[in-house]
């Protein structure tokens, strides 16, 4: 079956339909999938988990970032059987959601990274940030020895050179776009860019099977990555097409 794009330019291709039907019909092998599926935590009509989608993605790529809540991942843990979990990142928002009045106000979401095959074969660009704080080399060697013990590996003493950078933390502060969103669960570039740059090489291709308002494609295109999008709701396909067709890409505003 030949799929006709809803929208296409030299960096982004968008398809309309259920990703479980569309993706198998596309002859693509993306470097990365960035997925923001419905969490199935509300009674809203659009908030329905698409059964089986992780297995469909596993057929085309070996690297996956998936947004979600702890409840979502626990409820659907069996569907990630084809995947191995490498790490989790916490997106800390400037404003949270108050779905319940008898619990802590949730101001974060998880982004989990999953992979298939040998970890050494999975593309990853170690995220580092600038640091002005010097670290003593003896402390670095001690910490390295502890890492070796924790990870079950043999630690070999190495010469450590302070490059002025440190590993980026797993908690990322990024202002959410509530009040400006073109979609009720729109993700900001502040959380999307680090995940994309970590797991998709520059010039590579990423897949977003739940495209929403197109934020993943917008962020990918600005960072030199191509994107293949799938969106089930035609209303949002139109939003994406209008948004990406603009010469100046809006971030946080309306098209």
Task: Please provide a written account of the structure.
The chain is of the alpha/beta class. 24% of the residues lie in helices and 24% in strands. The chain is built from seven helices and eleven strands. The protein has helices spanning 19-22, 53-58, 70-75, 137-151, 189-199, 215-222, 234-244, and strands at 7-8, 12-16, 32-35, 63-68, 84-97, 106-115, 128-130, 165-167, 171-173, 205-208, 226-231. The protein has a nine-stranded mixed sheet with strand order 1-2-11-10-3-4-6-5-9. Strand 1 and strand 2 form a beta hairpin. Helix 5 crosses helix 6. The longest helix has 15 residues, at 137-151. Residues 247-255 have low confidence and may be disordered.
Shape: globular
Strand order of the largest sheet: 1-2-11-10-3-4-6-5-9
Q: Main beta sheet: strand number and arrangement? A: 9 strands, mixed
Radius of gyration: 20 Å
Poorly predicted residue ranges: 247-255
Mean pLDDT: 86
Helix fraction by DSSP (H/I, runs of at least 4)? 10-25%
What portion of residues belong to β-strands? 15-25%
Q: Say how many strands there are.
A: 11
Query: Cα distance, first to last residue?
Result: 33 Å
Structural class category: alpha/beta
What is the string of helix and strand elements?
Answer: EEHEHEHEEEHEEHEHEH
Total helical elements? 7
Features:
255 residues, alpha/beta, 9-stranded mixed beta sheet, two-stranded antiparallel sheet, 7 helices, 11 strands, 24% strand, globular
């Amino acid at each position: 079956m030949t799929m006709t794009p809803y929208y296409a330019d030299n960096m982004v291709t968008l398809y309309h339909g259920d990703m479980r039907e569309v993706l198998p019909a596309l002859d693509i092998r993306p470097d990365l999938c960035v997925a923001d599926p419905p969490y199935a935590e509300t009674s809203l009509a659009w908030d329905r988990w698409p059964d089986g989608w992780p297995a469909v993605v596993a057929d085309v790529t070996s690297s996956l970032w998936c947004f979600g809540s702890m409840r979502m991942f626990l409820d659907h843990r069996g569907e990630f059987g084809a995947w191995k979990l490498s790490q989790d990142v916490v997106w800390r928002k400037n404003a949270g959601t108050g779905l319940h009045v008898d619990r802590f106000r949730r101001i974060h979401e998880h982004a989990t990274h999953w992979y298939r095959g040998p970890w050494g074969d999975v593309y990853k660009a170690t995220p580092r940030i600038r640091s002005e704080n010097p670290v003593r080399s003896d402390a670095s060697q001690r910490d390295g020895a502890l890492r070796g013990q924790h990870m079950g590996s043999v630690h070999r003493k190495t010469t450590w050179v302070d490059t002025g950078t440190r590993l980026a933390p797993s908690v990322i502060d990024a202002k959410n776009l509530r009040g400006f969103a073109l979609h009720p669960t729109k993700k900001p570039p502040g959380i999307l860019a680090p995940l994309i740059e970590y797991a998709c090489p520059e010039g590579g291709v990423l897949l977003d099977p739940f495209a929403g308002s197109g934020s993943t494609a917008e962020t990918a295109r600005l960072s030199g990555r191509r994107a293949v999008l799938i969106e089930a709701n035609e209303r949002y396909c139109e939003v994406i097409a209008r948004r990406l067709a603009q010469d100046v890409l809006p971030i946080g505003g309306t098209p």
